[in-house]
Amino acid sequence: MPLIIRLRQILLIGSLLAVTASLSLADTVTDVGILLREILQDRPVPRLPYLNRAAPMNPDSGYFKGRYGGIDISVETHPNSDLVAAILLAIPGPNRTREILPAVSAVLGPPHSSDPTHGIYGWEWPDFRTASVHYVAGGGDTAGQTIISIFYR
């Protein structure tokens, strides 16, 4: 096979991989927006096919875990209630805080504090409600995670 044809094949494969990676990121950004609109703080835990009851972390609170696309989901309720108290979305892989921020801001509004250099964005509201978008680096063979959390302090 001539060298020029091999080079074209390599370029084509590289282009396809790049397009696939950007589509995956676009899906993740869209999925974050969907999840933040479906699972709302201080509302009943929605019945969603991808969200299942799990062993509670705190006494008298409900706990739910799931996965939507490439996003791990954890939801905890207020004690003795079915109302959502905390939402945690974790996206394994490289730091995606900047890509995810517009989807989060579309639901929560612009961040009240930010440190773009370190990829940390935060929100605070009355009654001790808070939210953050940040990255937790992995170690060794463990991948890092982009975290979106909404909770009470």
Short structural summary:
This protein has 153 residues and is an alpha+beta fold. The chain is built from 2 helices and 8 strands, in the order αββββαββββ.
Question: Strand order, biggest sheet?
Answer: 1-2-3-4-8-7-6-5
Q: If you compute it from the alpha carbons, what radius of gyration comes out, rounded to the nearest whole angstrom?
A: 19 Å
Number of helices: 2
Mean pLDDT score:
87
Give the helix proportion (percent range).
Answer: 25-40%
Which of globular, elongated, flat, extended, rod-shaped describes the shape?
Answer: globular
Give the DSSP E fraction (strand runs of 2 or more residues).
Answer: 25-35%
How many domains?
1
Q: How would you sum up the major sheet?
A: 8 strands, antiparallel
Structural class: alpha+beta
- Cα separation of the termini: 64 Å
What oligomeric state do the depicted chains represent? single chain
Sequence stretches where pLDDT stays below 50 over 5 or more residues: 17-25
Secondary structure: number of strands:
8
